From TrEMBL:
GO biological-process terms attached to the record: proteolysis
Protein name per UniProt: Zn-dependent dipeptidase
Superkingdom of the source species: Bacteria
Ranges in coiled-coil conformation: none
A matching Pfam family: Peptidase_M19
Entry-linked InterPro entries: Metal_Hydrolase (IPR032466), Pept_M19 (IPR008257)
Sample GO molecular function, one term: metallodipeptidase activity
Length: 370
């Protein structure tokens, strides 16, 4: 176990992500939290970029075991990366399908709400396919329908930068949804694709919530009132989202805190508690956008390389100088610690169950049923 001095040094921010943090020994979970978590419908609304790549990684058997032991019921996986084109995205979807075909006893591809319930009953992990980028659409509305037929159920209007449909969070807060973006929202509403506004700037977020005839979602973000950051959402938009039935997932990214230190569970809970206060218990969930498996030095090195590439491409948000995880709850059952913290803050088991996944389960049912 690290000394206090060594721990402080290890957690100090550095420009190289590979050395920015270490994992700490998590505190013991309460029996109440463990029991609740084991019986809950647990949904991480943003994790596993390109889940099909698991087939190409070493230690697959160990990872499959860890995923089952995680207690996770469903995860939303990003396909197509931050800026893949049409062909690369189709290849990514094919790789995901290969994983589902090879391990039908471990995964269920989500094509609609019933698959989420089936996964819980059969102790498999349901995978919701989604896009964060819109480059694969190439400004073509008809591609939204094409990818819906390939079971991509969640899409955005922009990543961090401007798109033909709207503005990303790094484009300032002047422009919002474009005329083509209005058509994209209408098509998503018509065919049952969830409109995700996680990476949109403030005007695009506001416009998207207002223009959508179905509830919108913010699958992974933080609260701007807790920490000012372009990837975090304003109270005004959070309230508007909730008033139309949407759900906001709180992420475990570095944007929870200033870049002078690594975020911990206590920082995460400040955002979670604020979101519950602003949105209400029926409109908050979890979308970690963090490393699913506890990282080793090799993986942290790969994260550092990715961060450098993102800076070069101009799509990195401020504060991407730390690994995307909470070192003090760095296990595959990290959401159980969120449940425990909510219980300790006085929330009842019914509310915790909603936050762990029932809220997203409800809103996806509303959106996908056409």
């Amino acid at each position: 176990m690290l000394s206090c001095t060594a721990t402080a040094a290890a957690l100090a921010p550095r420009r190289g992500l590979a050395s920015a943090s270490v994992s700490l020994k998590p505190p013991p979970l309460s029996n109440r939290a463990q029991r609740l978590y084991d019986h809950a419908f647990v949904l991480d609304a943003n994790n596993f970029a390109s889940i099909g790549e698991l087939l190409d990684e070493s230690g697959l058997a160990h990872k499959l075991h860890a995923m089952r032991a995680s207690g996770m019921t469903a995860v939303k996986s990003t396909l197509g990366g931050a800026q893949d084109d049409f062909d690369a995205t189709v290849a990514d979807i094919a790789a995901a399908q290969a994983l589902f075909d090879r391990y039908p006893d471990r995964f269920i591809k989500v094509t609609g709400p019933a698959d989420l319930d089936q996964a819980k009953a059969k102790r498999r992990i349901a995978v919701i396919q989604s896009f964060e980028a819109v480059t694969m659409l190439d400004g073509k509305i008809e591609r939204i329908e094409l990818f819906r037929e390939l079971d991509v159920l969640v899409m955005q209007l922009s990543y961090n930068r401007r798109s033909p449909f709207g503005c990303g969070c790094l484009d300032g807060d002047e422009d919002g949804v474009t005329p083509l973006g209005r058509k994209a929202i209408a098509k998503m509403n018509e065919i049952g694709v969830a409109l995700d506004l996680s990476h949109a700037n403030t005007p695009t977020t506001s416009d998207g919530i207002r223009l959508s005839s179905r509830p919108a979602v913010i699958t992974h973000a933080g609260c701007r009132a807790v920490f000012e950051h372009p990837r975090n959402k304003t109270d005004r938009d959070m309230r508007a989202l909730a008033e139309k039935g949407g759900v906001m997932g709180i992420y475990m990214l570095p944007y929870l805190t200033p870049d002078t230190r690594q975020p911990m569970l206590a920082d995460y809970m400040r955002h979670m508690l604020h979101a519950l206060k602003v949105c209400g218990e029926d409109h908050v969930g979890i979308g970690t956008d963090s490393l699913f498996f506890p990282p080793d030095a090799k993986e942290l090195h790969e994260v550092a390389k990715l961060e450098a590439w993102r800076r070069k491409q101009g799509i990195a948000a401020p504060g991407e100088n730390r690994p995307p995880y909470l070192p003090d709850v760095d296990t595959t059952r990290k959401l159980a610690y969120v449940a425990d913290a909510l219980l300790r803050h006085g929330y009842g088991e019914r509310v915790v169950d909603k936050v762990l996944g029932r809220n997203f389960r409800r809103v996806f049912d509303e959106i996908w049923t056409v």
